[in-house]
Amino acid sequence: MAIKFLNQFKLLVILLLGVSLRLVFWVPRSSANIHHKSTADASVFASRDYQMAANETRRNCANWVAEDKRRILLVNFQPIEKLSWMAEEYHMSLSLVKSCLKLGFDIHHVDKSYFENYMDPGELSSYHRILYMLSSPSDVHWSHQFDHRDVICKIRVLLPDGKIWNDTDFLRLSLRFQKKQLLVASPHEDGTYFGYYPVLSTGVAARPVSSMREKRGIIVLSPHLKVSETANEVMKKLIDAGLIIHVICSGRLDVKVELPNSAIRHQDLSQEETSRLLSQSAFLIHFGDTVATPLPVIAISFGVSVINLSSKDGTSQMPSLSEMGMPYVYNVDIDDEDAIVSTAQLSVQYRFASHVMVTDGVMEDRVCALVEDDSMCSCPSQMSGMECRASFYMKKEAIFPAVE
Questions:
Q1: Is residue 70 within 8 Å of 85, Cβ to Cβ?
Q2: Ordered DSSP codes for 184-200
Q3: Per residue in 78-131, pLDDT tens?
Q4: Which CATH class, in words, describes the domain spanning 39-197+363-378?
Q5: 104 φ, ψ to 5°?
Q6: What CATH number is given for 213-349 in this structure?
Q7: pLDDT per position as a tens digit, 15-57
Q8: pTM above 0.85?
Q9: Which of 89, 108, 253, 345 could form a disulfide with 46 if both were Cys (CB 3.0 to 4.6 A apart)?
Q10: CA–CA distance, 396 with 258 (Å, rounded to integer)
């Protein structure tokens, strides 16, 4: 009996030891198929401006495109060091390039003069996509390269700083380009919304809330602004309510402008200084004419509520943000001082850590949709009676389903 019990005990020990060994040495089968490849190994830059974005992990997109065709040409993109980080073009350029690299495309860069005078249609048609940056309406001109169907179908025009583009500018562009080819940084009815995510040296992850955060707010004043009575009264009332008010002057403010004594005035802040101020603040209000700037988007990514002032006719400073809702964006009548003050206090009460409207993953999806859509180049040129601009059955098909 004792021998039988001993044998059973030995068997139990062997079984337990076997299970333990399997637990120690077991590796998930799926992990054997995981391969990490740095895009830096595959990408060759014609320009060093975006080398900083090269070490990204590659993901699949447009797998049917041959390796020697996985090339994207950037035209008229400015060197990063020449762009202000407070310009939409800076963030649009970087977030786009970083996404292209993560999708496994090589990036080449030329200026518009080289594109116009030294590249032939055969060379241009070897690129899977051509991204043409138009920084301002003065950059709009017709290139002889656009006369070639195999070239123009590959082109997508990027339009940052949306407020500088008027209906006439879009009309000129629409004479040759389809709406799906005009990619705008901020929503516009005559272009396809593409957007960007804020690319900062400090990243865009959620920030810890500072102990002083609930007591601070930021007022942005436009350049050449004669500070209105409303702006001054709002600042005074906020200060009287116990809030610390920081005033950012976006440009050279009239030296004769008098601000409340307790207001802390800033000018020409660096990225690090602005980031530090945002991480300590609860809300942001802009007085004066707003210019196309990523500051509200960056502020929301730092957990700062944006108070969007609007006139009685319903026109708001930042229409692209007006439908986001609290606690990210509050829409308030610009003539109602008490409402502005109470809204600022409300934003202090309802805090949030961070909100990134367009993440890097969303941008990658949009870029992938951009490079995978070959409907314009695939449309048979000899079928002149066929509508190639959109499906005959669905002409309002979404270009970027993740956005609509």
A1: no
A2: ESS--TTSEE-------
A3: 888 888 888 888 999 999 998 998 888 999 999 888 998 899 988 998 899 999
A4: alpha beta
A5: 85, 30
A6: 3.40.50.2000
A7: 444 434 333 333 333 333 333 333 344 344 444 555 555 555 5
A8: no
A9: 108
A10: 52
